[in-house]
Structures are given as C-alpha cells and as structure tokens.
Task: structure prediction
Amino acid sequence: MKQKKTVFITGCNGTLGKKLVSYFLKKNFKVIGTIRKFNSYHQKSKNLKVFKLDMLKDNDFKKLVNNLNKTNTTIDVLINNSAIPSGSITEMTSIKNLKNVFEVNFFSQIRLIQNLLRFIKKSKNGSIINIGSISGLIAEKGFLSYGTSKCALMFASKIMAKEFRKYNIRVNAIAPSVFKSRMEKKMDKKIKQKFLEKSSTKKEIKLKSVIKLIDSLSSKNSGETNGQIIRLVNDFKI
Ligand SMILES: NC(=O)c1ccc[n+]([C@@H]2O[C@H](COP(=O)([O-])OP(=O)(O)OC[C@H]3O[C@@H](n4cnc5c(N)ncnc54)[C@H](OP(=O)(O)O)[C@@H]3O)[C@@H](O)[C@H]2O)c1
Result:
C-alpha cells in the first residue's frame, strides 16, 4: 500500500492554517499541526496530530523535536504559515517592535526549518513552503517591520533552496496579496485599500487560490520549481 505523505503546518488556529489542515486531511495526508493554545481542535481526525508551539518559546521547540524523534517521523511538506502582523511608519517603530516581529516572522521560522530538517531529509521529495507576503516585495509606507521580516524570509528561501538541493528538498516562498483573514481584519483600512488599488480587480485574492498554490508547490507536479518567490496577485502595479 502507498505510504501516506505527511505535511507539517504551523499556525493552525489561524484562518489560512485551519483551512490548510482541512484541505490536506481531505487529500489523505497525515497532518502535523502546531498551535499556540490548545483547544478541541486536536480531536478532529486520527490523521491529525497537534503540538503546542509558540514560536517564541525554547521549550516548545525542544518538546516538539523530542516528540517527533520518539515517533520516528518523516516530513514530506513543511508549510511555515505562522506570523504576526505589524504596521507603523519607520519614525514610530521601536527597535523592540522590529526585533519582536523578526523573532516570530523570521528567526523562529529559520529555527523551525533547522530543527525539522532531519525529518524532511527522510522524505524522498521534500518541499518547504514559506508564506511570505507581497508587502515584502513592494515597498509601502508603514510596513517596516512586517515587510522587511517577510522579505528576509522570502530571500532566505532562495538560499536554502540552493543548500538543500542535495537532500532533494525544494524550498519556495509565496507572496500573496491581501486575502480575507483574522490578520487582514487587523490591517489599517487605508493601507489595505492602497494595496487593493494596485491590483486590476481591486479586490482581495481568494483564500482558495492561496491553498491551491501551496498545494501545487507541495506536489511533485512542481518538481521543477525551486528557489522561487511566487507572487499571488492580480496584475500588480509597482
Ligand atoms: N491575510 C493576508 O492578507 C495575508 C497576506 C499575505 C500574507 N499573509 C500571511 O499568511 C499567513 C497566514 O496568515 P492569516 O492571514 O491566516 O492570519 P492569522 O489568522 O492571524 O494566522 C496567523 C497564525 O500565526 C500564529 N502565530 C502568531 N504568533 C505566533 C507565535 N509566536 N507562535 C506560534 N504561532 C504564532 C497565530 O496563532 P494564534 O492563532 O494563536 O493567534 C495564527 O494561528 C501568515 O504568514 C501571513 O503573514 C497573509
């Protein structure tokens, strides 16, 4: 019998994270999801394992790796989805805020990849998908912390793609425009409008499109796509 593939998804209590879990369970994957706070969610399916992982907590990383070691886990797909939003102009941005945003959106993402690499190496066709953002490619006022943290993550994806090729692990990043979510609701309305105005539809992109792109990058069908930052936008004007 064909072995089920395993996908590891962070930020599974968030809008995109939740949808990704349901999507991959339907596709008959084994799903390992991480959340910051436990709730009834982990009882959802026998193919779903949920771990607590606050990206800012050393102990959570240690416990996670111990658990994965115990169960001799192989990870085929890693989706780095968790992130925090932040919006303020440079003059009003404290270094403390900048460091905190980088801690969650960049350093801890790299740390997770480093921690999980040994489990991904066991896959014959590993795929790492980092969720970046269009705001890490297009400079907009007020995006110093968030935009630069996503930019760093997307650029790091290109470097890791070169380094991990020898393990047959692909690394790509996606750069979506605005889609409806808990994070999007926290966006400054004027700034959000500015982003929407740049696209030909002047609307948010569909969550379904984000999932389809991630799905495609996770599969062998995109075996020739490596080290890429893929924009998910409608005719963006720079
Ligand atoms: N929505 C957009 O317009 C948009 C556009 C471009 C890119 N993105 C990116 O898409 C991804 C998904 O975002 P979303 O829109 O679905 O937002 P969301 O619902 O706010 O999801 C973000 C997730 O990250 C988790 N998270 C935040 N801080 C964390 C920490 N310290 N440790 C562990 N997890 C933490 C949150 O955990 P809790 O549930 O515990 O709060 C939440 O589950 C993010 O990477 C975001 O930057 C979003």
In short: Residues 32 and 199 are 35 Å apart (CA to CA). The chain has a mean pLDDT of 94. The chain has seven helices and seven strands. Strands lie at 6-9, 30-35, 48-52, 77-80, 126-131, 169-176, 229-232.
